Amino acid sequence: MKTIRTVLAAALLVAVLPARAATDDEEGWKAFGHALTLAQVLMRIAGQSDDASKGFDDVLAGRNTEANRAIAGLLEEATADMPAEYRARVATMGQDIAAIARKQVGKPAPISADNAIQARKDLTAMGLKYHDPKDFLDAVKRDDSLAVELFITGRGVNLGAKDAQGKTALEIARARGNQPMAELLARSLPAAR
Q1: 183: Cβ–Cβ under 8 A, 6 or more apart, which residues?
Q2: Cα gap 131→161, rounded to integer Å
Q3: Is residue 25 predicted with pLDDT exceeding 70?
């Protein structure tokens, strides 16, 4: 879902360029070109990357050279007529927005009641009980990431439940070397109070 929101944000960026980008002057087209490049980078990450969250984090942290050039060019074109003090403020605001966005990358999206109900129906259709910690832990042991995601979304099991050997789902995923599942479980566990 975050990937879709990011792609939509990129599309909006292209659609809502400053008014000067809509003109026929060369400067306006340069800004539009920078925005298109940035949108293309984001869509490429969303569509082709095995770990889109890491790709988006790289863009937000300034570790993607192509995105850096596009953002710098877009900022330069969009603020060309501004006094230097305002350009600096705009640049600072952009850095703050990127920092806020970086905090959101990789966080699980809030789970709605509709999503939880659908996840429970899907688990039941798979022959699993959405409220059974044994079914949940068995899914982790067989690296069934789809079922694990549905258990998390369904909110019917304690994600900290332990198997007969006293291991939690997170410990099992780590022991099996399933890093993506371990990260998902770690992000989904309730915060310690």
Answers
A1: 106
A2: 11
A3: no
